[in-house]
Protein backbone atom coordinates (compact mmCIF):
# COMPACT_ATOMS: atom_id res chain seq x y z
CA UNK A 1 0.00 0.00 0.00
CA UNK A 2 1.15 3.52 -0.79
CA UNK A 3 0.28 6.79 0.90
CA UNK A 4 -0.91 10.04 -0.64
CA UNK A 5 -2.07 13.38 0.71
CA UNK A 6 -5.39 15.06 -0.06
CA UNK A 7 -5.87 18.78 0.51
CA UNK A 8 -8.94 20.98 0.02
CA UNK A 9 -6.69 24.00 0.60
CA UNK A 10 -9.46 25.32 2.84
CA UNK A 11 -9.12 28.65 4.64
CA UNK A 12 -6.99 28.54 7.77
CA UNK A 13 -7.37 32.18 8.81
CA UNK A 14 -3.83 33.02 7.67
CA UNK A 15 -3.22 35.78 5.10
CA UNK A 16 -3.35 34.34 1.59
CA UNK A 17 0.34 34.80 0.76
CA UNK A 18 1.36 33.00 3.95
CA UNK A 19 -1.32 30.36 3.42
CA UNK A 20 0.08 29.41 0.00
CA UNK A 21 3.66 29.46 1.25
CA UNK A 22 2.75 27.18 4.17
CA UNK A 23 1.10 24.71 1.81
CA UNK A 24 4.16 24.72 -0.46
CA UNK A 25 6.42 24.08 2.54
CA UNK A 26 4.18 21.17 3.44
CA UNK A 27 4.47 19.83 -0.12
CA UNK A 28 8.24 19.81 0.35
CA UNK A 29 7.73 17.91 3.62
CA UNK A 30 5.48 15.36 1.89
CA UNK A 31 8.28 14.67 -0.55
CA UNK A 32 10.78 14.19 2.29
CA UNK A 33 8.32 11.83 3.99
CA UNK A 34 8.11 9.59 0.92
CA UNK A 35 4.48 10.43 0.08
CA UNK A 36 3.56 9.10 -3.37
CA UNK A 37 1.35 11.99 -4.53
CA UNK A 38 -0.22 15.24 -3.36
CA UNK A 39 -3.85 15.62 -4.52
CA UNK A 40 -5.72 18.93 -4.33
CA UNK A 41 -9.38 19.85 -4.73
CA UNK A 42 -11.06 22.42 -6.97
CA UNK A 43 -13.78 24.58 -5.44
CA UNK A 44 -15.04 28.09 -6.22
CA UNK A 45 -16.36 31.03 -4.18
CA UNK A 46 -16.08 29.17 -0.89
CA UNK A 47 -13.55 29.04 1.96
CA UNK A 48 -13.46 25.29 1.38
CA UNK A 49 -11.10 25.80 -1.56
CA UNK A 50 -8.56 28.62 -1.87
CA UNK A 51 -6.98 27.09 -4.99
CA UNK A 52 -9.87 27.50 -7.46
CA UNK A 53 -7.28 27.44 -10.27
CA UNK A 54 -5.49 24.17 -9.39
CA UNK A 55 -3.02 24.43 -12.29
CA UNK A 56 -1.60 27.69 -10.93
CA UNK A 57 -0.95 26.22 -7.49
CA UNK A 58 0.35 22.94 -8.90
CA UNK A 59 2.84 24.78 -11.12
CA UNK A 60 4.39 26.12 -7.92
CA UNK A 61 4.37 22.62 -6.39
CA UNK A 62 6.20 21.37 -9.49
CA UNK A 63 8.96 23.89 -8.93
CA UNK A 64 9.30 23.30 -5.18
CA UNK A 65 9.62 19.50 -5.44
CA UNK A 66 11.61 17.00 -7.48
CA UNK A 67 10.02 13.58 -6.93
CA UNK A 68 6.57 14.16 -5.44
CA UNK A 69 3.74 13.38 -7.82
CA UNK A 70 0.76 15.73 -7.73
CA UNK A 71 -2.54 16.59 -9.33
CA UNK A 72 -6.15 17.66 -8.91
CA UNK A 73 -8.85 15.43 -7.49
CA UNK A 74 -10.53 16.64 -9.52
CA UNK A 75 -10.56 19.18 -12.32
CA UNK A 76 -14.27 20.03 -12.51
CA UNK A 77 -14.56 19.52 -16.25
CA UNK A 78 -17.86 21.37 -16.93
CA UNK A 79 -16.21 24.55 -15.59
CA UNK A 80 -13.19 24.28 -17.93
CA UNK A 81 -12.83 24.67 -21.66
CA UNK A 82 -11.41 21.23 -22.54
CA UNK A 83 -8.92 22.44 -25.15
CA UNK A 84 -7.57 25.08 -22.78
CA UNK A 85 -7.38 22.56 -19.95
CA UNK A 86 -5.48 20.12 -22.18
CA UNK A 87 -2.85 22.83 -22.71
CA UNK A 88 -2.52 23.34 -18.94
CA UNK A 89 -2.20 19.60 -18.35
CA UNK A 90 0.53 19.27 -20.96
CA UNK A 91 2.46 22.22 -19.52
CA UNK A 92 2.28 20.83 -15.96
CA UNK A 93 3.34 17.36 -17.03
CA UNK A 94 6.27 18.66 -19.08
CA UNK A 95 7.40 21.22 -16.48
CA UNK A 96 7.38 18.60 -13.71
CA UNK A 97 9.23 15.89 -15.60
CA UNK A 98 6.12 13.73 -15.93
CA UNK A 99 4.81 13.84 -12.35
CA UNK A 100 1.20 14.88 -12.98
CA UNK A 101 -1.69 12.71 -11.73
CA UNK A 102 -4.80 13.76 -13.65
CA UNK A 103 -8.08 13.74 -11.74
CA UNK A 104 -11.26 14.58 -13.67
CA UNK A 105 -14.89 14.70 -12.64
CA UNK A 106 -18.30 16.26 -12.90
CA UNK A 107 -18.19 18.22 -9.63
CA UNK A 108 -20.65 18.04 -6.73
CA UNK A 109 -21.80 21.56 -5.87
CA UNK A 110 -24.83 22.97 -7.73
CA UNK A 111 -24.25 26.25 -5.90
CA UNK A 112 -20.75 26.70 -7.32
CA UNK A 113 -22.00 25.77 -10.80
CA UNK A 114 -24.68 28.43 -10.50
CA UNK A 115 -22.05 31.16 -10.12
CA UNK A 116 -20.78 30.19 -13.59
CA UNK A 117 -24.23 30.05 -15.16
CA UNK A 118 -24.22 26.26 -15.54
CA UNK A 119 -27.39 24.33 -14.73
CA UNK A 120 -26.05 21.53 -12.54
CA UNK A 121 -29.07 19.25 -12.79
CA UNK A 122 -29.53 19.55 -16.55
CA UNK A 123 -26.11 20.22 -18.02
CA UNK A 124 -23.26 19.15 -15.72
CA UNK A 125 -23.27 15.41 -16.53
CA UNK A 126 -23.52 15.67 -20.35
CA UNK A 127 -21.00 18.54 -20.31
CA UNK A 128 -18.62 16.39 -18.27
CA UNK A 129 -18.94 13.45 -20.65
CA UNK A 130 -18.33 15.60 -23.73
CA UNK A 131 -15.44 17.50 -22.12
CA UNK A 132 -13.78 14.23 -21.11
CA UNK A 133 -13.94 12.94 -24.68
CA UNK A 134 -12.46 16.18 -26.03
CA UNK A 135 -9.75 16.18 -23.37
CA UNK A 136 -8.63 12.63 -24.21
CA UNK A 137 -8.51 13.51 -27.90
CA UNK A 138 -6.47 16.64 -27.23
CA UNK A 139 -3.97 14.73 -25.08
CA UNK A 140 -3.40 11.92 -27.57
CA UNK A 141 -3.86 13.39 -31.07
CA UNK A 142 -2.34 16.18 -33.13
CA UNK A 143 -5.71 17.48 -34.32
CA UNK A 144 -9.15 17.45 -32.72
CA UNK A 145 -12.49 17.12 -34.44
CA UNK A 146 -15.60 16.77 -32.30
CA UNK A 147 -19.30 17.41 -32.75
CA UNK A 148 -21.34 17.59 -29.55
CA UNK A 149 -24.03 19.66 -27.94
CA UNK A 150 -21.61 21.79 -25.90
CA UNK A 151 -18.30 21.52 -27.77
CA UNK A 152 -17.68 21.56 -31.52
CA UNK A 153 -14.33 21.57 -33.30
CA UNK A 154 -13.22 20.79 -36.82
CA UNK A 155 -9.58 19.87 -37.28
CA UNK A 156 -8.33 22.04 -34.41
CA UNK A 157 -4.50 21.81 -34.25
CA UNK A 158 -2.86 20.60 -31.03
CA UNK A 159 0.54 22.14 -30.32
CA UNK A 160 1.37 20.61 -26.90
CA UNK A 161 1.63 17.05 -25.66
CA UNK A 162 2.06 15.47 -22.24
CA UNK A 163 5.35 13.88 -21.28
CA UNK A 164 3.60 10.76 -19.96
CA UNK A 165 2.12 8.61 -22.72
CA UNK A 166 -0.60 8.33 -23.77
CA UNK A 167 -1.54 10.75 -20.98
CA UNK A 168 -0.94 11.21 -17.22
CA UNK A 169 -2.57 8.59 -14.92
CA UNK A 170 -6.29 9.23 -14.58
CA UNK A 171 -8.11 9.62 -11.24
CA UNK A 172 -11.80 9.72 -10.45
CA UNK A 173 -13.60 10.69 -7.24
CA UNK A 174 -15.94 7.81 -6.54
CA UNK A 175 -18.84 8.16 -4.10
CA UNK A 176 -21.52 6.30 -6.05
CA UNK A 177 -20.94 2.56 -5.73
CA UNK A 178 -22.84 1.96 -8.96
CA UNK A 179 -20.07 3.70 -10.93
CA UNK A 180 -17.40 1.27 -9.74
CA UNK A 181 -17.60 -1.19 -12.64
CA UNK A 182 -17.32 1.65 -15.18
CA UNK A 183 -14.23 2.98 -13.37
CA UNK A 184 -12.65 -0.48 -13.45
CA UNK A 185 -13.40 -0.99 -17.13
CA UNK A 186 -11.90 2.42 -17.88
CA UNK A 187 -8.83 1.65 -15.75
CA UNK A 188 -9.17 4.68 -13.51
CA UNK A 189 -7.50 5.18 -10.16
CA UNK A 190 -10.31 5.96 -7.70
CA UNK A 191 -10.56 7.79 -4.40
CA UNK A 192 -13.54 8.03 -2.07
CA UNK A 193 -14.38 10.07 1.02
CA UNK A 194 -17.06 7.65 2.21
CA UNK A 195 -17.19 5.54 5.39
CA UNK A 196 -15.49 2.14 5.53
CA UNK A 197 -18.52 0.02 4.59
CA UNK A 198 -19.05 1.98 1.36
CA UNK A 199 -15.34 1.89 0.48
CA UNK A 200 -15.29 -1.86 1.07
CA UNK A 201 -18.07 -2.33 -1.46
CA UNK A 202 -16.25 -0.12 -3.98
CA UNK A 203 -13.00 -2.09 -3.72
CA UNK A 204 -14.87 -5.41 -3.84
CA UNK A 205 -16.71 -4.50 -7.01
CA UNK A 206 -13.57 -3.01 -8.57
CA UNK A 207 -11.56 -6.20 -8.01
CA UNK A 208 -14.39 -8.40 -9.26
CA UNK A 209 -14.70 -6.37 -12.48
CA UNK A 210 -10.91 -6.31 -12.94
CA UNK A 211 -10.84 -10.12 -12.58
CA UNK A 212 -13.81 -10.55 -14.93
CA UNK A 213 -11.92 -8.58 -17.56
CA UNK A 214 -8.96 -10.99 -17.09
CA UNK A 215 -6.55 -8.16 -16.30
CA UNK A 216 -3.33 -8.60 -14.36
CA UNK A 217 -4.12 -8.16 -10.66
CA UNK A 218 -0.60 -6.89 -10.00
CA UNK A 219 -1.39 -3.91 -12.25
CA UNK A 220 -4.70 -2.98 -10.65
CA UNK A 221 -5.04 0.82 -10.27
CA UNK A 222 -5.06 2.65 -6.95
CA UNK A 223 -8.22 2.37 -4.88
CA UNK A 224 -8.05 4.83 -2.01
CA UNK A 225 -9.91 6.91 0.52
CA UNK A 226 -9.25 10.14 2.41
CA UNK A 227 -8.97 10.58 6.18
CA UNK A 228 -8.40 13.66 8.36
CA UNK A 229 -5.23 12.88 10.34
CA UNK A 230 -3.58 14.55 13.33
CA UNK A 231 -0.59 12.94 15.07
CA UNK A 232 0.85 14.15 18.37
CA UNK A 233 2.87 12.72 21.30
CA UNK A 234 -0.35 11.87 23.18
CA UNK A 235 -3.83 10.78 22.11
CA UNK A 236 -5.40 13.55 24.19
CA UNK A 237 -3.35 16.30 22.53
CA UNK A 238 -3.96 14.97 19.02
CA UNK A 239 -7.71 14.71 19.61
CA UNK A 240 -7.95 18.21 21.11
CA UNK A 241 -6.07 19.74 18.18
CA UNK A 242 -8.14 17.77 15.66
CA UNK A 243 -11.48 18.76 17.24
CA UNK A 244 -10.52 22.44 17.14
CA UNK A 245 -9.34 22.33 13.53
CA UNK A 246 -12.24 20.22 12.31
CA UNK A 247 -14.77 22.79 13.59
CA UNK A 248 -13.12 25.38 11.36
CA UNK A 249 -12.89 22.98 8.41
CA UNK A 250 -16.54 21.96 8.71
CA UNK A 251 -17.66 25.60 8.82
CA UNK A 252 -15.91 26.10 5.47
CA UNK A 253 -17.28 22.83 4.12
CA UNK A 254 -20.90 23.61 4.94
CA UNK A 255 -20.93 27.39 4.36
CA UNK A 256 -22.44 27.55 0.87
CA UNK A 257 -24.95 24.80 1.58
CA UNK A 258 -26.38 26.53 4.65
CA UNK A 259 -26.29 30.03 3.19
CA UNK A 260 -28.30 28.78 0.22
CA UNK A 261 -30.54 26.45 2.29
CA UNK A 262 -29.61 23.38 0.26
CA UNK A 263 -30.28 19.84 1.45
CA UNK A 264 -27.36 18.63 3.57
CA UNK A 265 -28.55 15.07 4.15
CA UNK A 266 -26.43 13.48 1.42
CA UNK A 267 -23.18 15.21 2.38
CA UNK A 268 -20.49 12.75 3.50
CA UNK A 269 -19.27 14.46 6.69
CA UNK A 270 -20.92 14.92 10.11
CA UNK A 271 -20.56 18.15 12.06
CA UNK A 272 -19.18 16.46 15.18
CA UNK A 273 -15.54 15.32 15.09
CA UNK A 274 -16.08 12.41 17.46
CA UNK A 275 -18.78 11.07 15.15
CA UNK A 276 -16.34 11.47 12.25
CA UNK A 277 -13.86 9.28 14.15
CA UNK A 278 -16.54 6.69 14.91
CA UNK A 279 -17.37 6.52 11.20
CA UNK A 280 -13.69 5.91 10.48
CA UNK A 281 -13.23 9.14 8.52
CA UNK A 282 -10.68 10.71 10.87
CA UNK A 283 -7.69 9.49 12.86
CA UNK A 284 -6.14 11.40 15.77
CA UNK A 285 -3.60 9.97 18.19
CA UNK A 286 -0.04 8.92 18.81
CA UNK A 287 2.05 7.46 16.00
CA UNK A 288 1.39 3.96 17.35
CA UNK A 289 -2.38 4.53 17.51
CA UNK A 290 -2.47 6.01 14.02
CA UNK A 291 -0.38 3.16 12.65
CA UNK A 292 -2.76 0.58 14.12
CA UNK A 293 -5.86 2.40 12.82
CA UNK A 294 -4.40 2.66 9.33
CA UNK A 295 -3.55 -1.06 9.37
CA UNK A 296 -7.03 -1.99 10.55
CA UNK A 297 -8.88 0.29 8.11
CA UNK A 298 -6.80 -0.88 5.16
CA UNK A 299 -7.72 -4.46 6.00
CA UNK A 300 -11.39 -3.67 6.48
CA UNK A 301 -11.79 -1.71 3.27
CA UNK A 302 -9.42 -3.42 0.85
CA UNK A 303 -7.77 -0.16 -0.25
CA UNK A 304 -4.27 -0.10 -1.67
CA UNK A 305 -3.87 3.68 -1.32
CA UNK A 306 -4.39 5.72 1.84
CA UNK A 307 -4.83 9.49 1.44
CA UNK A 308 -3.95 11.46 4.55
CA UNK A 309 -5.32 14.94 5.15
CA UNK A 310 -2.58 16.58 7.24
CA UNK A 311 -3.68 20.21 6.72
CA UNK A 312 -7.25 21.30 7.43
CA UNK A 313 -9.12 23.97 9.33
CA UNK A 314 -6.94 26.21 11.47
CA UNK A 315 -4.10 23.74 11.95
CA UNK A 316 -0.89 25.74 12.11
CA UNK A 317 2.05 24.95 9.87
CA UNK A 318 3.87 23.61 12.95
CA UNK A 319 0.97 21.31 13.87
CA UNK A 320 0.63 19.91 10.35
CA UNK A 321 4.39 19.57 10.01
CA UNK A 322 4.57 17.65 13.29
CA UNK A 323 1.97 15.18 12.01
CA UNK A 324 3.93 14.69 8.79
CA UNK A 325 7.25 14.21 10.59
CA UNK A 326 5.83 11.80 13.17
CA UNK A 327 4.09 9.86 10.42
CA UNK A 328 7.32 9.56 8.41
CA UNK A 329 9.34 8.55 11.46
CA UNK A 330 7.03 6.25 13.35
CA UNK A 331 3.57 5.65 11.87
CA UNK A 332 3.81 3.60 8.61
Keywords:
332 residues, alpha/beta, 10-stranded parallel beta sheet, two-stranded antiparallel ribbon, 11 helices, 12 strands, 46% helix
How would you characterize the overall build of this protein?
- This protein is of the alpha/beta class.
- The protein has eleven helices and twelve strands.
- The strands form two sheets. Strands 1, 2, 3, 4, 5, 8, 9, 10, 11 and 12 form a ten-stranded parallel β-sheet that branches. The protein has a two-stranded antiparallel sheet with strand order 6-7.
- β8, α6 and β9 form a beta-alpha-beta unit.
- α1 packs across α2, α2 runs parallel beside α3 and α6 crosses α7.
- 45% of the residues are buried.
- The model has no long low-confidence stretch (mean pLDDT 96).
Provide a compact summary of the structure.
By secondary structure, this protein is α/β, with parallel strands linked by helices.
Q: How would the blueprint of this fold be written?
A:
Layout: E1 2-7, H1 16-32, E2 37-40, H2 54-64, E3 69-72, E4 75-76, H3 82-95, E5 102-105, H4 110-115, H5 120-140, E6 143-147, E7 152-157, E8 170-173, H6 180-186, E9 189-192, H7 196-212, E10 223-231, H8 235-259, H9 273-278, E11 282-285, H10 287-301, E12 305-309, H11 317-330
Parallel strand pairs: 1-2, 1-12, 2-3, 4-5, 5-8, 8-9, 9-10, 10-11, 10-12
Antiparallel strand pairs: 6-7
Helix pairs in contact: 1-2, 1-11, 2-3, 3-5, 6-7
Rg value: 19 Å
H/E element sequence: EHEHEEHEHHEEEHEHEHHEHEH
What percent strand? 15-25%
Overall shape: globular
Distance between the termini: 10 Å
Please state the average pLDDT score.
96
Please tally the β strands and state the result: 12
Count of runs of 4 or more consecutive helical residues: 11
Helix content: 40-55%
User: How would a textbook summarize the main sheet?
Assistant: 10 strands, parallel
Structural class: alpha/beta
Uncertain regions: pLDDT < 50 for 5+ in a row? none
